[in-house]
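Our consortium's second objective concerns turning raw sequence data into structural hypotheses that experimental partners can test. To show how far this objective has progressed, the report includes one record in full. It was chosen at random from the queue rather than selected for favorable results. The single chain below, 148 residues long, was entered without modification.
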Amino acid sequence: MTAGQVSAQAGGGGTQRSDLGRLDVIAPKRFRAGRTSLVLAVTAERAGRLSVALLKGSSIKAKKAATFGGAGTFSLKLRVPRRLAAGSYRLKLTFTPKGAGRAVTRTLKLTVVAAKKKAAKRSATVANDTTRHLRGIPSRGPEPRIIP
């Protein structure tokens, strides 16, 4: 998964890279509220376990853990609440390499932007009736012809 794909999945806004020892992570800088999953691209040089948490202050909004059996590039999908409030969040990443006793932790900043508002639908009948009355066209159809 490329940086462009990660950015597109999050709704645009660019990406950021972080190095956790033997693990490289590509995460979005911005995330559009209303989406249900946050996608991360992870490249591991060796086996290990990754834990991800989305934090707003000290409150955990979403979390996920993954175990990598070996080297490779993976995508990690973090399920987030649909009604995530706009604002500043932190993405806490913790990687423990296999056989190592100590974990490496990094915290990334993530900005959640408000969802795009949908345009209000206008009622077709109300719009048509008002334009007919304004133009002087009868709303029931043409007048019947009287033949003498």
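The partners drew two points from this record. Residues 124-135 form the longest helix (12 residues). The radius of gyration is 26 Å. Both points have been shared with the crystallography group to help prioritize constructs.
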